[in-house]
Please model this.
Amino acid sequence: MHSNEDICGLNLLTIKSTMNPDTTTVTDKKVKIAVAKGDGIGPEIMDATLKILEAAGASIQPEYIEIGENVYLSGNTSGIQEEAWNIIDEAKVILKAPITTPQGKGYKSLNVTLRKSLALFSNVRPVNALHPYVQTNFPKMDVVIIRENEEDLYAGIEHQQTQEVVQCLKLITRPGSEKIVRYAFEYAQAYGRKKVTCMVKDNIMKLTDGLFHQVFKEISAEYPDIISESQIIDIGSARLAANPENYDVIVTSNLYGDVISDIAAEIAGSVGMAGSANVGLNVAMFEAIHGSAPDISGKNIANPSGLLNGAVMMLSHIGQTEVADKIKNAWLTTIEEGYHTADIFQEGQSVKKVSTSEFAEEVIARLGQKPKQLKESKLASGAGTINIPSYERKVVDKKLVGVDVFIDWSGSNPDEIGNNLHAVNSAKMKLKMITNRGVKVFPNGLKETYCTDHWRCRFVSSEAIIQTGKPHYPTVEYDHVLTLLTDLSNAGFDVIKTENLYEFGGKRGFSLGQGE
Model:
């Protein structure tokens, strides 16, 4: 289908005929897995999960790594030691229980570090209703959320620019968008799913979300047998919460995906039941979607289902689909027969409230059985391959046409700062407009607009035609920008940031101010 293809690490439902030669005999040799027991309830649910995997005959060799709270508190601000990285590099597969990031002291999220450092670009969260055994209003719900994992606001690039204003940079890239959108369609094709829905907010963020949406349109055209649709994220989230049965596969960017995947899991019955895969081209990580729940740590009451479902996805990934089916069907049978941990226990519906360790024993007792009401797991019957083409960068003409200069100014009258900026004698560039919090306030702003101390001042070539007809922006030399900045500094303006304005292939590569 594509040139220069990379076979993606995730082989869920792509086993047997499509496995690489070095993994087809995976059951003859134990597969090394980097195992992190995590924090809080992590060790309890990991022990339960590994006990089930061992009883089911999973051919794995756990290599334990220590990450999380203890590593942070030992003075390692990354939360992971070099030895753990080495084990991960060798194993290429991670099974991770939830971890705790200590509050304060600027500790970075280790989950984000792992996803970005290992290029785990795709977060995959299947969410299925387990009605009537787990309470839900949506008994037919069967949705997969595919979330971009590396960029967006989760790049974590933030700055305080003035006394009153902080910013966070939202980074959306074409390579990142192409990978995740392609993955969503390849996943749908491999799993026999019928529809992919893209959720964005490009009615407001026309460049960032606009790029993601444009890539979705381009790639969806290559999959005519799969229905494609796009929705604005706010109404899309509302519709997902109200009618999840109308969705099949959802693909979206990092922050939106984080939010709606938890919405989906909760309305299906319990966030504690869902597992997820974090997939890259070389490494994959499997985990529960819930946190470390320190409030119930050590009480032997946590539900291990989320991590167990993550482990089932892991087994499918490494080619052990028959074992994965065996475990998943035993788990479904356990749920169906009413042996429930406290989080999903229902008086009159459940048969017995069981502890973490007891739940594991109940699953083990049902290995080889299949559910009678819930949908049977049939991973071993799957076929197909998920292919992600190598990114090819296209050469596009790039032209500098202006600069946005951000100024820290404590005044409140836009006309005052605007007239003062007009008085700066910078021969090659002129002030086009000023915005405050994105709204145009000069020239001809509204007196009702509230202004803070953060002013975006747009300068273009002094030869630009901006008053009538289609704006024309002549090329600006970077030396002109440097001269302008020097002139502004000499005039006493506190320049805190600049953003160059470019046209790419003749198209404007910057947003207009509201009201511009």
Remarks:
- Confidence is low (pLDDT under 50) at residues 1-27.
